[in-house]
Amino acid sequence: MPRPSQRLLSPEIITEAAMRMVDLSGDFTMPGLAERLKVRPSSLYNHVSGRAEIIELMRARMMAGIVVADPDGKWSETVAGLAREYRRNYAEHPRLIPLFTAHTVQSGVAFGLYNALAQAFSDGGFTPEEILHAITTVDSFVLGSALDLAAPEVVWATAPEANEAMLAALATSGPNPGRADAAFEFGLRTLIAGLVAQAPFEP
């Protein structure tokens, strides 16, 4: 019998299948992944060490799509640009985010973004400890905003427990496909303003 013209499995094929499973159901299992690929579960381990490695492969794939441009302006503008690019890329697969946040970042590809953020905050005069806090804050905000893209079209039901201020706010929403983007930009402006207020150097 002739050999197949292409490999039935590879880390890339396994990663792609796992991402599709997460997009559909929010998670994946090794037996479920093997079933999707129509192979024995043991065959997967010839290409990956297990679930944790697949998650890191998915993270590397996502982070590889983030464009980190050379900084050519104020550090605060660099941070805002990176945040937008970060969210844009993760918005394509928001259901991956809970998996990523539960695992230690190990992918070297991810450090392209984190290095750029660290340098921007360093340029703003933040201390090393503050830089780590600032990166964590940006990370939390962007990932939360990307996850918001997977929310239902109507996020909040009008409930009898809502007070007048909340009811007035809800009255402005309704089915609005641009709600998540508008909320992200509002939050980003607020976040950057707070960082600028704490920065020792000019923004």
Model description:
The chain is mainly α. It is built from ten helices and no strands. α5 (75-90) packs parallel to α8 (128-148). The protein starts with 10 loop residues before the first helix and ends in a 5-residue tail after the last helix. The model has no long low-confidence stretch (mean pLDDT 88).
Features:
flat, single chain, 10 helices, mainly alpha, 203 residues
Supply Rg: 21 Å
Unreliable spans are none
Overall form:
flat
Number of helices: 10
What's the end-to-end separation, in Å? 67 Å
Helix coverage percent of residues?
55-70%
SSE class:
mainly alpha
The largest β sheet comes out as:
none
The secondary-structure element order is: HHHHHHHHHH
| Tally of DSSP β-strands | 0
Relative strand content: under 5%
Q: Mean pLDDT, as a whole number?
A: 88
Give a short synopsis of this structure.
The chain is mainly α.
Task: Give a topology summary.
Layout: H1 11-25, H2 30-37, H3 41-44, H4 51-64, H5 75-90, H6 97-101, H7 111-123, H8 128-148, H9 164-170, H10 179-198
Helix pairs in contact: 1-4, 5-7, 5-8, 5-10, 7-8, 8-10
